[in-house]
Amino acid sequence: MVGVDFGLPHFDQELVELGLLAESAGMHPVARLSCKRRAPDPALFVGSGKADEIKELALMHGASEVLFDQSLSPAQQRNLERHIGLPVNDRTLLILEIFAQRARSHEGKLQVELARLQYLSTRLVRRWTHLERQTGGIGLRGGPGETQIELDRRMIGEAIKRTKERLIKVKKQRNTQRRQRERRQTFKISLVGYTNAGKSTLFNALVKARAYAADLLFATLDTTTRQLYLGEAGCSVSLSDTVGFIRDLPHGLVEAFQATLQEATEADLLLHVVDAANPDFPEQMVEVHKVLGEIGAQDVPQLLVFNKADALPPERQPLSDGDVYEVDGQPVPRVFVSARTGQGLDRLRLALAQTVQAREAAAELPEHDARGLDWEYPTRPPHSA
Ligand SMILES: Nc1nc2c(ncn2[C@@H]2O[C@H](COP(=O)(O)OP(=O)(O)OP(=O)(O)O)[C@@H](O)[C@H]2O)c(=O)[nH]1
Ligand SMILES: [Mg+2]
């Protein structure tokens, strides 16, 4: 695994996340190497000396593949493969690979297929312009490579169109189901958060379900929804568990998973689950807000759930089971829980019940200024874009 530090914020020196991604895709990282550069080398991404070093390290450890934490251009990828003599991939491809392995539902598979095709098409287009330049002399049109790529591109374009059409059909069915749910007027809560934060574990603990939870990135791809009865409010709400977020989520994936991510946009409340035991949690929260902004869910009220309290060292144990936390200068209510041990879950249920009741009260009094309510209950957007 190779990381190249260009002086950008949050450079992952130890390549921790890349390692987790690789393991989630079923690989075993054997060696890590990071280096500093001012700018990527156009041909090899790293210098040729560094490329030799990577090759040596890979040979020494018997590696069968080299993974880069940063995005490579198609030409860099090809040149590196030639230089090192092993397949070379980057983080974007790795994430696509995990999604492809993990997709279960019909819709999930279609979404992954669309993302993969879109990724391929950008690669082909770039390779195509590159060839075009090579054969670019006047009157020098149409070599064999050109026709082949033209053909590939047309086929991919058609496959993208077909996949999109099939997705639209699936989406229509989903909308019908959603409308049926809406007719029942249930309060909708969506779990959001960085991948591996513990959303599915919390979901299972709250609704006593058995959604797949694992120490893998992107364990969940499909949305699962269950009814959650809140005794304190005397009503049921619907709770949805869905796909996790990650920094630099490949753009094609965000687009392809729009329908799945939409769930968050239409929620009445977002439970933003944070892995409080992960030292990188502040950056992860920023990434989650970024994706929420991209999908237009930034104005949905939030409740922060700091999870994995059981894994916090004694000096970081929370002083109370809940408080208010500043996000972008805005106060957001927060509770501390452990989805694993059940610690704080009663407090979380109570906070949910109070939020539902506060919202109902606000709905009954149209003139009511939500800001007048106690800040413990999220009744307005915690932050604006
Ligand atoms: N110590 C501790 N571990 C937890 C807790 N909650 C979840 N985990 C672990 O964290 C890992 C990830 O949990 P998941 O529930 O799959 O996380 P997720 O947010 O659904 O992850 P994705 O679906 O991959 O985005 C699993 O190994 C869980 O056992 C907790 O409260 N304490
Ligand atoms: Mg999950």
Structure notes:
- The protein is an alpha/beta fold and 385 residues long.
- Helix content is 44%, strand content 16%.
- The protein has helices at residues 16-24, 48-60, 74-84, 91-102, 106-134, 144-183, 199-207, 251-256, 258-265, 281-294, 345-364; strands at residues 2-5, 33-36, 66-68, 88-90, 187-193, 224-230, 235-241, 269-275, 302-307, 322-327, 330-336.
- The protein has a seven-stranded mixed β-sheet, sandwiched between helices. The chain has a two-stranded parallel sheet with strand order 1-2.
- Residues 125-144 and 368-375 have low confidence and may be disordered.
- The chain binds guanosine-5'-triphosphate (GTP) and magnesium ion.
In brief:
The protein has 385 residues and is α/β, with parallel strands linked by helices.
Summarize the SSE layout with pairings:
Layout: E1 2-5, H1 16-24, E2 33-36, H2 48-60, E3 66-68, H3 74-84, E4 88-90, H4 91-102, H5 106-134, H6 144-183, E5 187-193, H7 199-207, E6 224-230, E7 235-241, H8 251-256, H9 258-265, E8 269-275, H10 281-294, E9 302-307, E10 322-327, E11 330-336, H11 345-364
Helix pairs in contact: 1-4, 5-6
Magnesium ion binds next to helix 7.
Structure ligands: guanosine-5'-triphosphate, magnesium ion
Strand content: 15-25%
The helix-strand sequence is EHEHEHEHHHEHEEHHEHEEEH
- Derived from helix and strand composition plus strand pairing, the structural class reads alpha/beta
How many β-strand stretches?
11
Low-confidence stretches: 125-144, 368-375
What's the overall average pLDDT, rounded? 84
Please report the distance between the alpha carbons of the first and last residues. Answer: 36 Å
Strands of the biggest beta sheet: in what spatial order? 6-7-5-8-9-11-10
Largest sheet: 7 strands, mixed
Helix content: 40-55%
Number of helices: 11
